[in-house]
Amino acid sequence: MRTLRIGVSACFFHPDPTRNVFKGKTLLYFEESLVHWIERGGALPILVPTPAANFSLDDFASAIDGLVLQGGADLSPKSYGEDPLREEWTGDAIRDAYEIALLRACRAQGKPIFGVCRGLQVINVAFGGTLYQDIPTLHPKQKVHRDREVYDQLFHEIRVEEKSWLASVYGARNGLVNSVHHQGIKRLGEGLVAEAHSLDDDLVEAIRANGGGSFVGGVQWHPEFIDISRKDLLAPSALFSAFADEVRKTITDE
User: Fold this and answer.
1) Taking a C-beta distance cutoff of 8 angstroms, is the pair 218, 116 a contact?
2) Do 66 and 216 form a contact (C-beta atoms < 8 A)?
3) What's the pLDDT at 253?
């Protein structure tokens, strides 16, 4: 089997005239842990840039076998038909538009898609869903899902739904994951199913598109941040391996 080519959507640093390096320029970048998670799974990560000149997102979609939507900045509430309730929840509408267009280009070509944290939220919004702009403010039964001081060392238990894709990866049981987000799914997008929930407050922790083409799924936690020596947490390698298997199902040139 040839090495899988996994496209990764870019994180954005927008032009900043106060920056000493690349002053006033847009920077597109990987987060290192995520690409190492993909590499440990035996696949080649490829950063997908914004298109220019004679290229389109369709061209980039055709050059990869699957797509991972990485974490990062909040989505803009305007991307799902709301106004920001606070200035700090304005999000990144430019990145939203790029990632949603990239998702649709890959979906049209039958390329499997996996979302991590923000990536799960992008999938939900692309399918017509909405988000809690801030879980502590807007979710009536909220628990702490993000603590800046401990960051990726905050953990909570999830309930994996029986007979789901995620259950086939981990078994239909509860599991412990990290939690690094203050936004989450409010209304599930059309054609999506919830595959896991936070045990204490029932927030959606994993999703999957229910039929209608190649695999689309995502998780709210960050598997790439999980220390692989931690046996009490859901193994990050199993999750990428399962996604890679979905990608291989669509490849005809191996």
Assistant:
1) yes
2) no
3) 67
- Look at residue 168 and tell me if it is in a domain: yes
Domain for residue 83, yes or no? Answer: yes
Please say if 106 is a catalytic residue: no
Query: Total structural domains in the chain?
Result: 1
Structural domain span for residue 149: 5-248
Whether pTM > 0.70 for this model: the answer is yes
Is residue 117 part of the annotated active site? The answer reads: yes
pLDDT per position as a tens digit, 227-241: 989 999 999 999 999
Domain-embedded: residue 103: yes
pLDDT computed for residue 254 by the predictor: 56
User: 130-163 as b/e, with b when 16 or more CB fall inside 10 Å?
Assistant: bbbbbbeeebeebeebbeeeeebebebebbbbee
CATH number for position 238 = 3.40.50.880
Does residue 224 carry a catalytic annotation? yes
Predicted local distance difference test score (pLDDT) of residue 35: 97
Q: Which residue has the tokens 């409010």?
A: 186
- List the catalytic residue out of 11, 99, 117, 181: 117
What residues of the chain score a pLDDT lower than 70? 253-254
The amino acid that residue 22 corresponds to is F
Does 32 reside within a domain? yes
